[in-house]
């Protein structure tokens, strides 16, 4: 029905209700109809007042099939003002007001006008959305978000879930019904409720949940066979703008027991806005995300430097589609091992900030190829740092790893050596050099999550090295934000680390991922393969002599500076080409642990 037809129909219906209500009210009080001047003027004033206030409160523009308490209040206001308007007209013309007749008329207006409007919703809910065989859903959270989710599921014919119960820890809501759906208990009742109501899907509908609370709820959900979904953190929840398509599966990132670090956006904008920024390793998981985060602060120019042309092309096209008219996006295909090229790039672009994310990070591969770890992680970092210092870069931020602390691997040792070089460069340069350490990054190409997902797709089993192995985890965006924040906090020579909460057992991570994928551990299976060369049972973020208890920013710590044995690192750069892989592996571990001193032209064990 068009708006004009709908408006005409509603005005005709309302006019009949208004005219009939006054006469029905009169009849109920006097048991007789009286058509006189008094009743005619009262009828006309009611008719005029109703249409006036109906337009004022937009009663003719409401979608009544979705009517709620708010619409009922609008009807109440419009009718009350209409009756008051009629009473004023009565007094003006007749110096008298028939209160009893107007009171009955007011009640009839409320019943009839409200009834005709809400009958549309009743028809839609009863006949347009008949009961179906949709799978039953348990809603976690009987607050505003959970209520809106249930309302949306009940209204939408396209929704594929049927809400049957609420779970909420607020005992004041227990035994109550919301929109016809009972609140059956707290989180501890999830397992029983899933069984009693034959629930196939669980929807976590509390957008403000902390990571710890999500973990607690998911632990209970994982005891059932129901599939668990979650409502994302979106601003639309605050305005009721919810659609069933916004449900998503719970992801591993949701289960990290720590809230993400918030950026000091004001100071970051002062550091980056309008400036030239260079990102090495810009095609990698961390490097590309650093580029995305940096571009949000509108740098004048961003230089995407990387060795792999395909990955650099991918991030370039992504950024150009978003910032082609606001940011000068430049690409440089270059290897940080090429000293001449790095100096050439710095001279050409003169960046204000350099984020050095280029590195080899795969522990077992670097154990087998220690010379490549040295070339990329040590020499590449030194080349980039020297070029940055020579051409007056303001701040140089190196991306490091928790594996650089008390390293047991070639990769961790070379990253520790790179930290030594960065701290040394800070002591001899006007450029501020800092390093940022964090744990394993969920979703990066080298992380365990993609491997687990592929193994699940293949039917399992998931391979875990040891049942007791634990790791710190963070998301790619959070790691990238930490790198950018460190550049703002940098005074020079620091090693920044994030308060990463409690470490996560790899075995628990594997079990959760199996559950999130809709399987059980019995279906997929978990196989223990033994620790690989260079791996540690647990990781550290700071060694004992680096620990500094004071936070320099919420959830960000800075390690105490230690005197690096940079001479041993420089010797390694000069002589590594003449050494065997086994010698290299032993040498980098000794340097990283400070066990080498200069003797003649080589290094020897103390």
TrEMBL record:
Tell me which species this is from. Answer: Pontibacillus litoralis JSM 072002
Which Pfam families does the record cross-reference, listed alphabetically?
CoA_binding_3 (PF13727), Polysacc_synt_2 (PF02719)
What are the top taxonomic ranks of the organism? Bacteria, Bacillati, Bacillota, Bacilli, Bacillales
Keyword Nucleus listed? no
**Membership in a protein family:** Belongs to the polysaccharide synthase family.
Q: Does the keyword Protease apply?
A: no
| Name the UniProt record assigns to this protein | Polysaccharide biosynthesis protein EpsC
Gene3D superfamilies per the UniProt record, alphabetical: NAD(P)-binding Rossmann-like Domain
Domain Polysaccharide biosynthesis protein CapD-like intervals: 277-559
Q: Mind telling me which SUPFAM superfamilies this protein's record contains? A: NAD(P)-binding Rossmann-fold domains
Entry's CDD domains? UDP_invert_4-6DH_SDR_e (cd05237)
Which spans are transmembrane here?
7-29, 35-54, 75-93
